[in-house]
């Protein structure tokens, strides 16, 4: 049996905006093992981004808990969650994760410093198909290049878990195919990959699809 890298138990998340209350997650539980590529699917507003934020320790659930490699990630001060995240989770979010004033290579190096990683920057950029673009600034990249630069930043610390929110949302089919190939090869190397996506192409490469509806996992 492969080890469980990420586990969530009975997650709840409420939001209150004025008089309006939203129960974005209602009792979500599952486990993901090393080497698994799991896709979180579901209609707009079903809770995918809220769930990924909790999985990555960027947000705190109101109920339930998140466990990373057997250590509780939720219900800790933000600085501790950030330290645990840096030790084991790479994140790619819908809005890109690059600093505009740093070059692509500078962004990767910054992420490496945070994660105390020594991966070779040139090798990493080559792996995501951005060899030769290391000295470009994010504003000089196309949407597809930005997505791959975001992936390089997320992979800079060689994280055990990669979490991506709609990573192929804006990409043409060739670039989507290429990015998916990278996520699949990541999982084949024994790393965990969790992707929220509407795309049928993304679902096709999944080992498992978790379908969310109104904040709950539903069986297909
Ligand atoms: N910060 C917030 N304040 C208030 N409501 C929120 C907040 N974040 C999310 N919500 C609500 O929680 C629900 C789940 O939102 P979430 O963004 O997780 O859905 P999603 O499945 O990722 O949607 P999409 O596919 O459109 O990105 C929605 O009803 C949303 O309006």
From TrEMBL:
InterPro entries: AAA+_ATPase, ABC_transporter-like_ATP-bd, ABC_transporter-like_CS, ABC_transpr_LolD-like, P-loop_NTPase. GO terms for molecular function: ATP binding. Residues 6-220 form the ABC transporter domain. SMART domains: AAA. Keywords: ATP-binding, Nucleotide-binding. Belongs to the ABC transporter superfamily. This is ABC transporter ATP-binding protein.
């Amino acid at each position: 049996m492969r080890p469980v890298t990420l586990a969530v138990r009975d997650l709840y998340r409420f939001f209150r905006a004025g008089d309006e209350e939203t129960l974005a997650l209602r009792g979500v539980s599952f486990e993901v093992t090393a080497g698994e590529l799991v896709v979180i699917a579901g209609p707009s507003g079903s809770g995918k981004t809220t769930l990924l934020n909790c999985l990555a320790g960027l947000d705190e659930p109101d109920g339930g808990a998140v466990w990373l490699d057997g250590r509780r990630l939720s219900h800790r001060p933000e600085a501790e969650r950030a330290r645990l995240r840096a030790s084991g989770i790479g994140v790619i979010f819908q809005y890109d994760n690059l600093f505009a004033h740093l070059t692509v290579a500078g962004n990767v190096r910054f992420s490496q410093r945070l994660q105390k990683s020594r991966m070779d920057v040139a090798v990493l950029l080559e792996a995501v198909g951005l060899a030769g673009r290391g000295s470009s600034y994010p504003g000089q990249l196309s949407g597809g290049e930005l997505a791959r630069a975001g992936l390089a930043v997320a992979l800079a610390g060689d994280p055990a878990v990669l979490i991506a929110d709609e990573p192929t949302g804006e990409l043409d089919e060739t670039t989507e195919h290429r990015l998916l190939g990278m996520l699949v090869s990541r999982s084949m190397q024994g790393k965990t990959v969790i992707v929220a996506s509407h795309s049928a192409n993304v679902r096709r490469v999944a080992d498992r699809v978790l379908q969310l509806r109104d904040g709950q996992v539903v069986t297909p």
